[in-house]
Amino acid sequence: MTTATTTDVEPALRLPPAKLFIGGEWVDAEGGTFTSENPATEQSLCEVAAASAADADRAVAAAQEALDGAWGKTSPRDRGKILWRIADALEARTEEFGRVETADNGKPIFESRYVDVPAAIDALRYFAGWADKIHGDTLAVQGPFSMAYTLREPMGVVAAITPWNFPIIQAMWKIAPALACGNAVVHKPASNTPLTALKFAELATEAGLPPGALNVVPGRGSQVGRRLVEHPGVAKISFTGSTEVGRGLMKDAADTIKRVTLELGGKSPNIVFADADLDAAVKGAYNGIFYGKGEVCAAGSRLFVEKRAHDEMLEKLIARTSRLVPGDPQHPKTRLGALVSKEQRESVLGYVETGREEGAEVAHGGRAADVDGKGYFMEPTILTGVDNQMKVAQEEIFGPVLVAIPFEEPEEAVSLANESIFGLAAGVWTRDIGKAHSVAARIKAGTVWINQYNWYDSGAPFGGYKQSGFGRELGSAALDYYTESKTVWVGK
Ligand code: NAP
Question: Comparing C-alpha atoms, which of 210, 228, 222, 104 is closest to residue 160?
């Protein structure tokens, strides 16, 4: 580990070296380096190694070597113990990892410290518990002398490709189940936020993970990511990212008939009925869109409010939002940080402009925000007068921008909610329990929250319907996506 100098960031921020992590050690990249920027200060944090396609090949070879060697010979129970030790080691360094995540991504330290790193630890412990409980079945087959059973085997080398919005969480939702199931992993983190992934690989090795079981190769998605997708030695791609990249990735994976799971974008509806606890719904709608700067795949970015309650709800929501002021992400009181990059802020502000051109009204925010004259901050934004067919209601904005749309009947709410290419998540707010379940059943989404929003647990599967992807992360469901089933027949 190198320690950052006072010229770039706080002296205590421990940043990884400009190297790849392959085979349990830091190695130079053939692809040179790129700069990791702090989006809140616009300052360079450090140089990061950029893997080339040849570096990706080296990482795959190291992962295969681990499967053929120490890691492949580690018993399921010992795999669980190692994962648990890694979780303990990460817990002891929560503050350090949280601060680096915040510096890299721009999210408030309140989130990194109290949600992101703890959620990553929880995923490690949850899947540590599964490691020695993954087994096949004996089968009731026909025939006088036959018996058959199934084995659940590791797939082999898993490539995990992750986005920038929840770097350590998304990484752990893949790495923890993949390792618990006995696979070896090559992780390609997002170019915007590679730092905690690199630090984590070193920490895991120090905690006892055999060399090569986890390798980290930052670099351009179109190069190193694509190489992993096409690599014949990679058995499975676990991808989280945009629907656009996911679509291309599926095509690239076709040549090798690679196992693929895709966790993609969303434009999730949050439906508030007039009989809901409006104050709770306001809080839920607010957290649903502004938590994580709205750079959240499951953000409740389309708010549907029953007409009778629309004006009151919007008035309360705007009042609450007006108290949300962007600030220094490392400050413990900050609740809205900087968007991840200049390009991302330009894209989000561009959508606000598009909304205006489409006839929406900017009821709150809508502009870049000034925080000490630096950083990619923007105001929390609410657009009203929106029609569900507008671009701002159909495309994923991926920033702190909410569109509000009134409805009259439950049927209308359901059909508006389902009028989307996405199907990641949804919220329903009502005191009528029958209506809540009936609406939840008819929404085409992988997760529906009733009278809450944005809740996750390592034991609850998460994933998409429609163009939000397929496969599930978390819960026992995730294990199916990191194992192959083999049927063994035994004759006389
Ligand atoms: P992205 O542009 O799709 O990138 C995701 C990852 O894929 C990055 O590591 C990227 O590398 C890599 N990549 C890019 N092109 C590739 C290619 N041709 N082959 C292989 N890998 C490639 O997504 P993002 O902008 O980082 O993240 C935001 C998106 O993620 C949003 O759409 C959001 O909804 C989605 N997301 C979904 C979930 C979920 O669970 N459903 C969770 C979080 C985020 P580079 O960084 O080098 O480009």
Answer: 228
Query: Which residues neighbour 85 within 8 Å (Cβ) at sequence distance 6 or greater?
Result: 207, 208
Q: Which has the closest alpha carbon to 237: 247, 224, 221, 225?
A: 225
> In sequence order, what E strands does 292-440 have?
302-306, 361-364, 381-384, 401-407, 422-423, 425-429
What confidence tier does 443 reach under pLDDT thresholds 50, 70, 90?
very high
Q: Give the length of the chain.
A: 492
Atom number of ligand 1 nearest to Cα 189: 9
34, 162, 165: residue to mutate for ligand 1 pocket, most atoms within 8 A of CB? 165
322 Cβ inside 6 Å of ligand 1: no
pLDDT reported for residue 143: 80
In this structure, the residue with its CA closest to atom 10 of ligand 1 is: 221
Please give the distance, rounded to the nearest whole angstrom, from the Cα atom of residue 287 to the centre of ligand 1. 23
The phi and psi torsions of 98 (rounded to 5 degrees) equal -65, -45
pTM value?
0.96
Query: What is the set of domains in the chain, with CATH numbers?
Result: 10-264+469-491 (3.40.605.10), 269-458 (3.40.309.10)
Closest Cα to atom 30, ligand 1: which residue? Answer: 241
Tell the residue number behind the tokens 């909410």, with chain if given.
Answer: 402
The contacts of residue 172 (CB under 8 Å, 6+ apart) are 119, 120, 123, 124
Tell me the pLDDT of the chain averaged across its residues: 96
For residue 422, pLDDT over 70 is answered with: yes
Is the distance from the beta carbon of residue 129 to the nearest atom of ligand 1 less than 6 Å? Answer: no
Confidence band of 8 (pLDDT split at 50, 70, 90): very low
pLDDT at 5 over 90: no
Confidence (pLDDT) at 31: 86
Q: Say yes or no to pLDDT of 462 above 70.
A: yes
Pairing state of beta strands 302-306 and 401-407? parallel
For 64-103, write each residue's pLDDT tens digit: 999 999 999 999 999 999 999 999 999 999 999 999 999 9
Residue that the structure tokens 């925000």 belong to: 369
Cα–Cα dist 96/111, whole Å: 13
At residue 419's C-alpha, the angle toward residues 414 and 422, to 5°, is 110
Structural element, H or E, at residue 46? strand 43-49
Q: Residue 275 half-sphere exposure, CB side, CA atoms within 13 Å?
A: 10
Helix (H/G/I), strand (E/B), else coil: 85: helix
User: Which pLDDT tens digit goes with each residue over 350-371?
Assistant: 999 999 999 999 999 999 999 9
Question: What values do phi and psi take at 155, rounded to 5?
Answer: -80, -35
Name the residue with tokens 């113990």. 81
Find how far residue 169's CA is from the centre of its chain: 6
* pLDDT exceeds 80 at position 4: no
